[in-house]
Sequence to fold (431 residues):
Amino acid sequence: MTGNRITAVRGEIVHFLADPAHDGRALEHFADGVLIVRDGHIAECGPAAELLAKLPPGTPLTDYRGKLILPGFVDSHVHYPQTDIIASHGEQLLEWLEKYTFPAERRFADPAHAAEVAGFFCDELLRNGTTTAAVFATVHPASVDAVFEAARTRRMRLVAGKVLMDRNCPDFLRDSAEAGHAESRALIERWHGRDRLLYAVTPRFAPTSTPAQMRLAGRLFAEHPGVFLQSHLAENRGEVAWVAQLYPEARSYLEVYERFGQLGVRAVFAHCLWLDDTDRQRMADTGTAMSFCPTSNLFLGSGLFDLRRARELGVRVGLGTDVGAGTSFSMLRTMSEAYKVLQLGRQSLSAVSAFHLATLGGAHSLYLDDRIGNFTPGKEADFTVLDPRATPLLARRSAACATLEERLFVLMMLGDDRAVLATHVMGEPAR
Ligand code: GUN
Ligand code: ZN
Fold:
């Protein structure tokens, strides 16, 4: 693409080389660090004292001293068409879908509306330090074009797909098994692997697809190497009971997806609250990921995610905002709510684990950790710059911290978009 464009940033660098749950030395920290970017990729990451001397004369150097430089956040589950129904009062999942979600998604039949929301959505992700997300569009193919186009112009790495939904939904949002399959296939051909964009086969959830559509979705996932599959699983108890009625032959909700070939590498399911250990073990064994969406789970009163059990059984887990049932685009806010959800389940989330989940852990859950998630050489240079003194309270509380771990915890408990000073995509400032 280009010749050797080299830039550098200087600041306090924090990133992960591995999962801190398995490796006590996974966190790498340079109090005064430098990140050297060549052609959008990490060339080197290390102490300023060493790297500044290596910079070719005239290299543009952005000075973020006093700020934290972290890998861009990874939001492993979010709905861009629900941007405008965030904070809609008063329902649990199935009523919330009928009352707010489906009417909002109907408007995406209009490509101009889709383009406007997609642009706002991508800007909002970046404003919050999120550089990669796994995104639901609507049932309308043009809604997928809109979000990929918005991500492409911002050079973001994005996973997205057209919602498949051929029953138990309003007529105005219903596709058919055949049309949904053909449209998904055309979208894969148009977008998958173009620039940094990746396609996800997206059956909304088991109740809104016929067995015929579920079968075709599994086939699409199997027949297109590198393509993702995303859906919802065991979020709400009423939903779980409904799935048991619709699929009486399945042992569990998870088994419905398994019967249709929808588990495996690059499959990611949001929520995963009402599972048993057989399900969790099956997810681990097949490499299927969970997206933990705490703000959504609290907002819809869905339940409490069991991170400890998922970890013990070796399931891949990422964090998701699940906007618009989720109440914030901020992964800092999402980490803070994750901490509280786990407190209610007598589990404790360390700041180190939370920041890992939001960066390298999220990338690992999506099988993207060979490209994003930390600052090892060769990775795509997506990063966010956090200001620990962004608000008077943050400044005051941060000043009283003795350790990096304490400062990270304060940032995740008190921080939000105000703490995001800048976000860089492929090395370049995005805002
Ligand atoms: N289950 C099926 N569709 C949805 C959705 O749009 N949001 C959430 N939170 N759960 C779902
Ligand atoms: Zn969702």
